[in-house]
Amino acid sequence: MYASAKNITLVNVCQETIWPGIITQGGNYHGDGFTLKPGQSASYNPPDGWSGRIWARTGCNFNNSTSSCKTGSCGSSINCTSPGSLPVTIAEFTLGANVDYYDVSLVDGFNVPVLVRPFNGKGNCSNAGCDGDLRQNCPSDLAVKDNGKVIGCRSACDAFNSDEYCCKGAFGDLTSCLASNYSKSFKQVCPAASSYAFDDRTSIITCSATDYIVGFCASRNQTVCSYHDNKLFCNESKGSKAFPQSWWQLLLMLALPPILNIQALF
């Protein structure tokens, strides 16, 4: 972890344990990772100017030499050494001094719902992501199953690897690569997420904020919180609210560092 003026809180609202993966964009793929049980959260402090990806790994086993995950695998250890294997729902960030860019991408497919919420922001600081579950109605030719259960939904590009679906070759520009029926079905369930390569123009958010929350399996009407600058910020239906130190100290007493269990807030 690094000293930073910004804070990203990762919250697991899923019914299962997840293993968030974090990768810094670039050829070296410097990565981090950790375990989040249901109801737990953890804070990630990216370096200034950070650009990277955050996602959830599911069904992981790091207890032996053949460590692996059912979705989102990024190497053989809990710390990621490569991008997450497809299909996977990705939260993407580019953090700047004056403006941040963020979105949730389904270009690499879908494995769990992901929402990104900003706090203390200026600009177009809206929520990004998907609180619907594409696994429930995933087309059969895109479905990834484990013991008969759909655990992920591939993108059309990943499944068919065609220029048309992957926006490459003769379809490598904004005017020629249009939304397919597959990406339209993704967009219908997840209107605030990028559903194909040139969908970014409607889904990338520009904002300047000090705190972001990445909620796995969170819904838009749930209260989510971020701890930063000695305050606990919670996003409620009527807006953001900062709680005094005495309020969150009780939460810290119940938690095992560095993970803060805030299950009671949901």
Automatic annotation (TrEMBL):
A single GO BP term for this record reads: defense response
Give the record's keywords alphabetically.
Disulfide bond
- Family as reported in the entry's similarity comment: Belongs to the thaumatin family.
Q: Which SUPFAM superfamilies match?
A: Osmotin, thaumatin-like protein
- Name of the protein in question: Thaumatin-like protein
Q: Which domain of life is it from?
A: Eukaryota
Cysteines joined through disulfide linkages: 14-217, 60-69, 74-80, 125-207, 130-190, 138-153, 157-166, 167-177
Instruction: Cite the Pfam families for this sequence.
Output: Thaumatin
Q: Which segments does the entry list as coiled coil?
A: none
